[in-house]
Amino acid sequence: TKDIFIPGKKILAYLSEIKNEKHKTIIYLSRTCNELVIELLRREIPEIKEEIIKIKNIARKPGIRTKISVTTENENLDPIGACIGIRKTRIQAISNELCGEKIDIILWDKNPIKHAINALSKTEILSMEIDKELEIINVIIKEDNVPKIIGKNGNNIKLINKIIGWEINVISNNDAKEKYTTEYKYLIELFTSTLNIDNNTAIFFIKEGFTSLEEIAYLPNNIANKLKSINKNYLINIKNKTKAILFNL
What we know:
Elements: E1 14-21, E2 24-30, H1 34-44, H2 46-49, E3 53-61, E4 65-72, H3 79-84, H4 89-97, E5 102-107, H5 112-119, E6 125-131, E7 136-141, H6 146-150, H7 155-164, E8 167-172, H8 173-195, H9 199-207, H10 213-217, H11 221-226, H12 232-247
Parallel strand pairs: 4-5, 7-8
Antiparallel strand pairs: 1-2, 3-4, 6-7
C-alpha cells in the first residue's frame, strides 16, 4: 500500500487476530483487509452504521482502489449520494485515511446484468453480449473509453469482475466490428458451401440469428412457420439436408 508510518503518529488499523504464545500476546493489525474499509464506512456514514444502507459486496486492491456495492430499502434515500456526501466529504475522508485509495460506490442489484451496468454507469455502453450459462458479459464501448474501464494493470476491470461475480469483457467498437465482419464472412462461406445454398439464403439465416449448422438442423417447425420471408417447404428441406450432413443420414 501507500502507507508511510511516522513514529508517534496515530494510525487506524483493523484488529484481525490476537494470539497468546507462552509469556506474550501477539496482536495482528491490518490496513489491507476489507473489514477496515467497512469500519471506516460505518464511522463516516451514519446510514451504514444504522444499517439503513447495507453493504452487499466489496472488492479491494489495497492502496489502489476499492469498489463497494450498496443498497437500501428506503425508497426516499439515494444510497450513492449518502455514501459520497455533500461535495464528496464523506467518501473523501475515507480515501484520505487510506492514503488516497480511490473508493467507488456502486448501486447493488440482485440481477448481475443490471449490477454490471451500474458498475459501468460512468461509461457509455454501445451494446452488450450476454451468456447467462457461462456468466459472461461482453461490453462494447468506444475505443477511447477502453483504457479507463480496464484501468492500470487491469485493476479496475478485475475489481468489477470480482464485485459482480461474472466475467466482464470489455471490447472496443472497432474490434467488435472487425470480429463481426470476420464471423459474418465465415458463416456465409459455411452455409453456402456446406448446404449448397445461395448468398441471399445464407444471409437470411445469419440475420435470423443462426450461427451454426446445428441450429439450422434443430430448427423447430413452429419457428419455420413464422419465418415468412422464405418458403416454408424450402426451409424444411434445408433443415433436413443439414441433419443429413451432420449425422450422415
